[in-house]
Amino acid sequence: MRLVPGEFAVKARKALHRLVPRGKRGRAVAAAAVVVVAVLGAITPMVVAKVTGLPDGVALRVGSTEVTEDQVQQRISALRALYGIKPPEGADQQDRFRRDAAKTVAVDVILGNAARSRNILISDQSANDTLAKMISTQLTSSGQGSFTDLLRAYGASQSDVIDEIKRQQSADLLFQAVTSDAAARVTDETVGQYYRDHQDSMVEPEKRDIQNIVVASEDQADQVAAAAKAGQDFPGLVRRYSLDQATSSAGGELGLVERSQLEQQYADAAFQPGVGGVFGPVKTAHGWNVGRIVRIEPAVPLTLDQVRDRLRDQLRSQQALDEWRTWLANEIRNANVEYADAYRPADPDTPPPAPDLSGVSEDAHPPSPTDEPR
Predict the structure, then answer these.
(1) Which InterPro entries does its entry note (predicted)?
(2) How confident is the model over 295-304, as pLDDT tens digits?
(3) Rounded distance, CA 278 to CA 273, Å?
(4) Which H or E element spans position 236?
(5) Distance (Å, whole) CA 356 – CA 312
(6) Same domain, 262 and 129
(7) What share of the chain is helix, strand, coil (3-state, %, to 5)?
């Protein structure tokens, strides 16, 4: 069975995400190595004006390394193939993404130079072994032939994948080298103080057992909500009206869920009423919803002993990320990157944005040290 391009992009993206460590360090490395993967698109080649200071056809220069417009385009094609990025629309977006792409490549060069200066080298054999494992474990239904065909369809090649693997693995080792002393600066007192400063938020979050009905229109949802609020049997309404085949046979039961597991607009409505309360209509990606609260498990405070290890890991990760970003900002400034006018990003001397590190674990949710006030 051959994968269609969309299926390949999903599988390849999941597989490549496993090439760097899971968790916060891996996300930090990915954010540094691929500056704007989340927003880059397949940017069409374009003719740019001659730029003073750089030869024709050169998009940027880092030290003695010149990167051509074609090389920037090749990098974009590889990112599209590997991460399933959709092409942007509109001239303004195209312009911004082209500039962001150039910055991605510039940071790649800077990180590569820094890794080599620390004798961090990833062998072709190591990268090929990782790729072979990825194909065998993640793309078993299509195999090597389909893998290569689909890469070619996106204008990328297996060597692009190998290069991406080497970038990620090299960036991970560089991250470890730069931040090796960060963990020691997080002491038991640091953890205890953070707990005391955020004790009100150190809780096992409230959970709610919800029954839900999904219908196609707001008018129908209004009718269902009125019937439910008038006291009609909710499971009966589920069986009669709900379009959600996954829950309709079980009385619309969603089970015990936390606010963070729900779409925001649905959560805002579902976490208002008490037990037995009906809420809605609420529009979500799946349709119009009417819900009923079956039971509530209130939030439970967590002791320092319960969260100590997770907080320590979180604070160490944040300390390492802060140190990494400070180091990276200095590296970018000191690199004196030159951009052609059509490729110069809006903020050429700043590091990539920090990834979201919110949450300590799946079963406890004290705030991240990077959480911003809402």
Answers:
(1) PPIase_dom_sf (IPR046357), PPIase_PpiC (IPR000297), PrsA_foldase (IPR050245), Trigger_fact/SurA_dom_sf (IPR027304)
(2) 999 999 999 9
(3) 7
(4) helix 234-241
(5) 18
(6) no
(7) 50, 15, 35
How do residues 56-70 score in pLDDT, each as one tens digit? 999 999 999 999 999
Residues in the chain: 374
| Coil, strand or helix at 227 | helix
**219 is in which domain, residue-wise?**
206-298
Closest to 22 in 3D by CA, of 168, 141, 140, 147: 168
CATH number at residue 164: 1.10.4030
User: Residues 347, 348, 351, CA angle at the centre, nearest 5°?
Assistant: 85
Residue 311, SS3 per DSSP: helix
- Non-local CB neighbours of 368 within 8 Å, separated by 6+ positions: 314, 318, 357, 358, 359, 360
pLDDT digits (tens, 9 = 90+) for 224-234: 999 999 999 99
Last residue of one domain, picked from the residues 237, 271, 298: 298
In the predicted structure, residue 103 carries a pLDDT above the cut 60:
yes
